[in-house]
Amino acid sequence: MLDQKNYIEIQKGNIPLIISVPHGGALECENIPKRSQGILGRDGRTIEIAKILVERINLLLKKQNLENNKSSYIISNVHRSRIDMNRDETEAFNPNSDIAREIYNSYHNNLMESVRDNLKLLDHSLLIDIHGFEKKNRPSGYRDVDIILGTNNFKTLFLEPILRKDWGNNIRGKIIKKFLELEIPIAPGNPKRREYVLTGGYITKKYGASQVPKSQAIQIEFSDKIRLQDQKLRELVLNSLAEIFVKNLI
Questions:
Q1: Is this model's pTM higher than 0.85 or not?
Q2: 134 in Cβ contact with 181 (< 8 Å)
Q3: What is the dihedral of CA 90, 91, 93, 98, to 10 degrees?
Q4: Is the peptide bond before 188 cis (omega within 30 degrees of 0)?
Q5: C or N: which end of the chain has fewer Cβ atoms within 10 Å?
Q6: Are β-strands 147-150 and 125-133 bridged in parallel, bridged antiparallel, or unpaired?
Q7: Mean pLDDT over all residues of the chain?
Q8: CB within 8 A of 227, min separation 6: which ones?
C-alpha cells in the first residue's frame, strides 16, 4: 500500500475548524503522469500560510488555557501539475494513474472524515480552503484586492438563502468587516465597485452546507502581495484571521 505521508500532511484536531491546502505542493512525483489540461501552476507559499495560521490559532488557544485544542488540516505536497485536489476526480489527474487516484481519494476521504467528526462531536464544522492569486492577472476594470472569499453565493455556508440584511451576521461577514476596518482590500467588500469575486471551487462546494448540512466552507484566496512580498501585511492578515476563528468557533 502507498505511504500517504510522502504526499499528504494530516493533523486531526478537536475544534470545529479544518484547513485545506490543495495547490501548494512542490513535490514533482515522477511516478505520476502530468495532467494534460487545466491550470498546472502551484499556489506558492500557501502551505506556509496555512501553517502560520494554525500556529497563531494555537497560540490564542494556549492563552485561553486551551492548549490541548487544535484545528485539523489536510495539506497536499503533490504539485498541482500531477494532481489537482480542487477538481472532480474526472479532471483531477491522469485517469491511467492508480497512484494519483489513491492519493486523491485519501485527501478527500480525510476531509470528509474531519467534517463528519466535527459534526458528530461538535455539531458544526468550518472548512477553510486556502489558495493564492496573482494581482497582475486580475481582469481590467475590477477593484484591486488582496483577499478574496468564495462561498458560492452563500451556498457553502447555508442550506437555505439568507436575507441581505443578514449577510454580515456570519463568519464571512465578520471576516469582511475586520479587513475593511484594517483597510485591507477584500472582495466581496464594496457593493458600488466591480468586484473580482471567485465563487469557490470543488472542495468548498463538496463539503459546504448545500451538500453537507451544518458544514460550512469558505475558499480564501490570498494575493501574491500577502503570500510572497509583504511580511508585515501577511502577519497582520493571519493574526486577524486567527482571532476571528478562535472568537467565533471556540
A1: yes
A2: no
A3: 0
A4: yes
A5: N
A6: unpaired
A7: 93
A8: 43, 44, 45, 46, 49, 132, 234
**Edge-first strand listing for the sheet containing 17-21:** 8-11, 72-76, 17-21, 125-133, 215-223, 147-150, 186-187
Cα–Cα dist 85/46, whole Å = 14
Q: What is the pLDDT of residues 204-242, one digit of tens each?
A: 999 999 999 999 999 999 999 999 999 999 999 999 999
Q: State the residue range of the domain holding 40.
A: 4-249
SS3 126: strand
175 confidence band (pLDDT: 50, 70, 90): very high
The cell for 100 is 494519483
CB atoms within 10 A of CB 197: 17
C-alpha neighbours within 13 Å on the C-beta side of residue 139:
7
Q: Which residues, at least 6 apart from 171, have a Cβ–Cβ distance to it below 8 Å?
A: 126, 157, 216, 218, 244, 248
pLDDT in tens, 133-169: 998 887 777 788 999 999 998 999 999 988 888 888 8
Beta bridge partners of 181: none
CA distance 229 to 7: 27
Return the residue matching grid coordinates 501539475: 81
Query: How far apart, in whole angstroms, are the C-alpha atoms of residue 219 and residue 205?
Result: 9
**For the segment 40-54, what is each residue's pLDDT rounded down to a tens digit?**
999 999 999 999 999
Cα 73 to the center of its chain, rounded Å: 10
Q: Could you give the number of structural domains in the chain?
A: 1
